[in-house]
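Notebook entry, structure prediction.
Reason for the run: the old model in the group folder had no record of what sequence produced it. Starting over properly, with the input documented here first.
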Amino acid sequence: MASPSELILTQVTPREGRREARVGSLNIAGAKSGVMDKGRIAFSYKEVRPGVYLVETEQPLEAGEYGFLYALSGSGSAGAMTARIFDFSVN
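New structure, fully documented this time:
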């Protein structure tokens, strides 16, 4: 990863020892992959020293589970996708 601009911040749902995020949709018109615009949480960042960034969301986060998604890829089985995720909780 070169910078936080390659990340997508979204809310995730804990389920059976893992965290899930909606990263696509399927309907009669076709399929879309990636986190939909309404699921993205806007943030800004500033490099404080090489490789270390200060990240701030544009709006306060509610209590819950969140993650920075990186490197989305499809598995081909039942439309499932996997991603690297840097997750955290807000209390």
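Summary: Residues 4-90 form one domain.
The old model has been moved to the deprecated folder.
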